[in-house]
Amino acid sequence: MTQIILNAWYRGAWWLSLFYPLEWVYLRLRKLHLRRQPNPSENPIPLLVVGNITLGGTGKTPLVVALVAALKQRGLRPAIISRGYGGRIGAGPHCVTAKDKPEQVGDEPTLLAQLTRVPVVVGWDRKAGLTWLAEQGQYDLVISDDGLQHSAIKGDLEWCLIDGARGLGNGHCLPAGPLREPSTRLHQVDQVLITGELQPQVKQQLKQLLGAQDDCLLEPQLDQLKRVADDQVAAWPSVDTPLNAIAAIGHPQRFFNDLRAKGYSVAGQGFADHHQFKPQDLPHGELIMTAKDAVKCKPMAQEQNLPWLYATQRLTLPESLVTKLIQQLDLTAKR
What we know:
Layout: H1 2-11, H2 20-36, E1 47-51, H3 60-73, E2 78-82, E3 94-95, H4 102-105, H5 107-116, E4 120-122, H6 126-136, E5 141-145, E6 157-163, E7 191-195, H7 200-210, E8 216-218, E9 221-227, E10 233-234, E11 243-247, H8 252-261, E12 266-270, E13 287-290, H9 291-304, E14 308-314, H10 319-328
Parallel strand pairs: 1-5, 1-6, 2-4, 2-5, 6-7, 7-8, 11-12, 13-14
Antiparallel strand pairs: 3-4, 9-10, 9-14
Helix pairs in contact: 3-5, 5-9
């Protein structure tokens, strides 16, 4: 059902017009909520919010991973805050450890902690997490994984990601469309980033909204193949080998298309984002999944010695983007 609705939002199904009255109610309630919120206080440490205004995946995780790596290369000390969606931490703050399970802290924070090797603090009270990190006195800046709609904090800088294939969908807000907030929000962020190949209709949509501007295009690429059970690198199979694949991410079809772009014939099964897998969901034979799915499926793969694999992603950020960020936040690269 979730995938049917997502497809309708991004393809512009006619029957979504039935939800226009509910969209109006949603926007009114949102406006009332924002009016009741106090103005966010000054951040105790420089804060970059990386988010989106649409439902469905836009590639935040590979961007955050690549940005942390680029900042560390320049001698800076970043940390991450996240809501911990799908976990049970509550308000937090809780700093993710190697002993934490994805069902406790969320699948994305678990993956971010593993890939970045920097502190990842979870809890729906992001302000508390930000304050806790500032009190440690060890970090130069904090990256909020998602949070453009979190009114309790305001990023010193805000980056908004847009899927280059799907854009803003039909341009309507929930429940008539995929937007969490009106598209005019893009005028308020500091940087719009487009992930994946930019389709002509999306380029035209953004041009009408934002006018002529240089598109910052980011194209994550599938990189290594690893075993789910022990994270050891495995060889990619011959392109003649049909692949069974699963993905419980915001945009499963993107993962399947990435595999097809490598020449594979793919039988893909998509699940809702953050889906908690049960044994009956997954075949016991060969299977390829995303890294985000692997952190949840690892115990099953280990217990049953299953030959499951997962694909990592690689993203290279433009040097100019990282340099601009450092300058805007008034940070000084250590080397």
